[in-house]
């Protein structure tokens, strides 16, 4: 999965324009970002090969964090 695919998935879940998802974009600044969106994001990432659990979610604050997390998870699954 490349960054554009990841950006598209996250943008769809968060219902935001993908252009707004820079690496520095903080999820807490997104209107209506709540626990339901967190769960939806976890499910969408898992369905696309990036399993995530609650303790991981607590560490993810920006889109850049998701990129790093996804790279780590995808590398672990290939290794």
Quick tags:
4 helices; about 80 residues; mainly alpha; single chain; globular
Mean pLDDT: 89
**DSSP helix fraction:** 55-70%
Rounded to an integer, what's the Rg over CA atoms? 12 Å
List the secondary-structure elements in sequence, H or E.
HHHH
Descriptive account of the structure:
By secondary structure, this protein is mainly alpha-helical. Helices cover 57% and strands 0% of the residues. The chain is built from 4 helices and no strands. Helix 1 (3-14) packs antiparallel against helix 2.
Summary, kept brief:
Helices cover 57% and strands 0% of the residues. The chain is mainly alpha-helical and 79 residues long.
Mind sketching the topology for me?
Elements: H1 3-14, H2 35-47, H3 54-57, H4 63-78
Helix pairs in contact: 1-2
């Amino acid at each position: 999965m490349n960054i554009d695919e990841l950006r598209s998935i996250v943008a769809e879940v968060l219902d935001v324009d993908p252009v707004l998802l820079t690496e520095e974009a903080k999820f807490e600044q997104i209107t209506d970002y709540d626990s339901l969106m967190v769960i939806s994001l976890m499910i969408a990432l898992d369905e696309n090969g990036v399993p995530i659990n609650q303790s991981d979610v607590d560490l993810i604050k920006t889109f850049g964090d998701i990129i790093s997390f996804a790279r780590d998870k995808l590398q672990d699954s290939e290794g």
